[in-house]
Design goal:
Strand order of the largest sheet: 5-4-3-2-10-9-8-7-6
Number of strands: 27
Signal peptide: 1-19
Structural class: alpha+beta
InterPro entries: Redoxin, Thioredoxin-like_sf, Thioredoxin_domain, Thioredoxin_ResA/DsbE_sf
Oligomer: single chain
Largest sheet: 9 strands, antiparallel
CATH class of the largest domain: Alpha Beta
Shape: globular
Domain Thioredoxin: 265-429
Protein name: TlpA disulfide reductase family protein
Keywords: Signal
Strand content: 35-45%
């Protein structure tokens, strides 16, 4: 879900996280080769080419998503489909009748096996938490709508911009903006919040009922709603146990608080003073390092577990390669779901390699609001992953942008990019 993943989501994610152990036999090279060949045949049979409809079963609900199976260089690949988004997964291994599909940069996998002709069953597993996290998974081959639609139902319109209020199980609320585009019964869109968006959602309208879902490897979301007039009332299910309710009214002028005014520096503070370990053993990173002297520096508060951080990184990585010669640097401050620095470094290094990140990454701490705020004590607080902090050529903090509106938000993403470039241009011109 970049899924800007806010602290609310981070806490929710921590509650949903799991630990799992995979056992591999210690056998000879020839035995391993034979097992691999046999497993490859089983895996190829289970993951036959075509479009599949997968379903996560949690909280008495079905969270559906579509994925494509193909071959690349003789090896199977899986591509998750979320609205316009395509997430290619190529780390696929087999052992016996079980196939493990690693879910991109996230420390998670789908572990599946054949369940009859053109059917799969298995588990969505997340490995980066303190508690076991497993969600039942099943899939059927053949292109289908995400949600069944009753042919004789009159389909209401959910198209437009909606003023939304989410309410958690603790009774606390937070504002959002719903953005939906509808063609016939098919609906796509997302929700903007003050600390990020819920990325690419897709689904169907059936009568006065709306159902939207997404699965990006880190999060499985289901949104349902009933429409009465120009108002919506519904539920939001997140993976294994997360649940909130939401209400909405049609409002083309709906907007959120200014993302540049949600946090700031403490009184009397102008600079951030930190020295974090680099992802490379023995190294360290500080904004006072000679490499950054006299340059505009962007600090990206992120986590490898955070889909919205991935959205921002997908923008920043190529942007950096095109602009670094202008006198600008980026430092990624990684907050991971582990206290083991070596493990955290490995997760961030994997992200760096898979996403072609050319800028520096540091291990800054654990993925929580409290820990991030403690590690950057000159800030009032950190309330979202990602948070983007702009330093001028003197090393002084000039702007703090909370959250990130990713490409799933359409024009809001274009505004995000334009604002980023404007800020950089202004700081470089000084």
């Amino acid at each position: 879900m970049p899924v800007a993943i806010d602290i609310r989501k981070a806490v929710l994610g921590a509650g949903l996280a799991l630990a799992a152990v995979a056992c591999q036999p210690n056998s000879s090279t020839s035995e391993n080769q034979a097992a691999t060949e046999a497993a490859g045949t089983a895996g190829a049979t289970a993951l036959s080419a075509g479009t599949w409809r997968g379903v996560l079963s949690a909280q008495g609900q079905e969270i559906p998503f579509l994925f494509d199976v193909a071959t690349d260089g003789g090896k199977p690949t899986v591509t998750l489909r979320n609205g316009e988004e395509r997430l290619k997964l190529d780390e696929i291994s087999t052992a016996g009748d079980s196939t493990t599909i690693r879910l991109g940069v996230f420390d998670a996998a789908l572990v599946v096996r054949a369940d009859g002709a053109d059917k799969l069953k298995g588990t969505w597993v997340k490995y980066d938490g303190k508690e076991p996290y497993r969600v039942a998974f099943a899939a059927t081959k053949g292109a289908e709508p995400l949600f069944p639609v009753m042919a004789d139902q009159k389909v209401e319109s959910f198209d437009g911009t909606w003023k939304v209020t989410f309410k958690g199980s603790d009774g606390k609320t937070y504002p959002a903006v719903g953005l939906f585009k509808q063609e016939g019964p098919n609906v796509a869109g997302t929700f903007l919040t003050s600390t990020g968006d819920y990325r690419y959602l897709a689904g169907q309208a059936d009568g006065n009922t709306l159902k939207l879902s997404t699965f990006d490897g880190s999060h499985g979301f289901l949104f349902t709603a009933q429409k009465q007039g120009n108002a919506l009332q519904g539920d939001f299910y997140s993976g294994k146990s997360g649940h909130e309710t939401w209400t909405a009214t049609l409002d083309p002028n709906a907007k959120l608080p200014d993302a540049n005014a949600l946090t700031g520096m403490k009184p009397g503070q102008k600079k951030l003073d930190f020295k974090f370990p680099s992802i490379y053993e023995g190294g360290s990173i500080s904004p006072s390092d000679p490499k950054y002297k006299g340059k505009v520096v962007v600090l990206q508060v992120l986590g490898s577990w955070c889909p919205n951080c991935m959205d921002e990184t997908n923008f920043l990585a190529p942007w950096y390669e095109k602009n670094k010669q202008r006198g600008v640097e980026i430092i990624g401050l990684g907050y991971e779901r582990t206290t083991d620095q070596k493990v955290a470094s490995q997760k961030l290094l994997k992200m760096k390699e898979r996403m072609n990140i050319g800028y520096d990454l540091a291990v800054a701490g654990q993925a929580s609001s409290a820990e991030a705020s403690k590690s950057l004590p000159q800030l009032q607080k950190v309330i979202a992953f990602p948070t983007t902090i702009f330093l001028d050529k003197k090393g002084e903090v000039r702007k703090i942008h909370t959250g990130y509106s990713g490409p799933g938000t359409g024009k809001y993403y274009a505004q995000e990019v334009a604002e980023f470039n404007k800020t950089i241009d202004q700081l470089l011109a000084e």
